[in-house]
């Protein structure tokens, strides 16, 4: 073979190799973003639950880091003993949780503090049903269980809310012996709590629902009315509460008038009057400590409590 032919073949082979290499690099570069996209993890808010089941406390949740899990397990061992709880599904941010779990400031401390909730509840009622306990997300704390009386419930809720900031809302699904809710009623109660999450606010010493922030109050009343229409066989107690400032008698009267005003607004929204009962409790049923401004703000509220004993018809 002549030198000229050898040279031509060499140039061709070199050109082919160069083209193949460049094309492969281009394909690799083009597919890299897709490959990264398939492995990217979604960002989610943290969550933690500690509930009773079969005589043990079951732990579940999405945690921001391994340190939080270690702290929770250590605290659970202190409270319930090594055989008194079960780590059902505590998953840590990353591959284990299949998500990047956010880590809000203070959240891990709140979660560890709430572990004592189920223990307190069990001491107050040895016959707690399965599912009783607490569930904490980034901005909501749900408490579920059956307690002996209203004073006991109030004290428990004060202890529990003391461990969370005002930004974390309380979803109170506790009931009192003699007014125990079935699953359908508990579902409705949770929806009432969320419908009223922003609250109904009144101007100082006023009981007109338009006296302060009428737009928010109207939105809350409409949301509550929607839940009442979804559960047509459920009756509700509209309870008015104040903080501890001022005299008892004026606060009792003010809370009753405010609850009655909300009742009238719901009736005007198309809800039958016989499904609604308004009552005022003044400062007598606090859910938080009145020694702080945040605590007083939690205590000034209108809440909607499902009344047991009504029909068990499923929501429509």
Task: Walk me through what this model shows.
The chain is of the alpha/beta class. Helix content is 44%, strand content 20%. It contains nine helices and eleven strands. It is globular, with a radius of gyration of 29 Å. The relative contact order is 0.09. Mean pLDDT is 88; it is low at 16-38 and 311-316.
Largest sheet: spatial strand order: 4-3-2-6-7-8
Oligomer: single chain
Number of helices, counting only DSSP H or I runs of 4 residues or more: 9
How does the major sheet shape up? Answer: 6 strands, mixed
Low-confidence stretches: 16-38, 311-316
Cα radius of gyration in angstroms:
29 Å
Number of strands: 11
**What gap, in angstroms, lies between the N and C termini?**
90 Å
What share of residues are in beta strands? 15-25%
**Order of secondary-structure elements:** HEEEHEEHHEEHEHHEHEHE
What would you say about this model in short?
The protein is α/β, with parallel strands linked by helices and 316 residues long. 44% of the residues lie in helices and 20% in strands. A six-stranded mixed beta sheet has the order 4-3-2-6-7-8. A three-stranded mixed beta sheet has the order 10-9-11. Strands 1-5 form a two-stranded parallel ribbon.
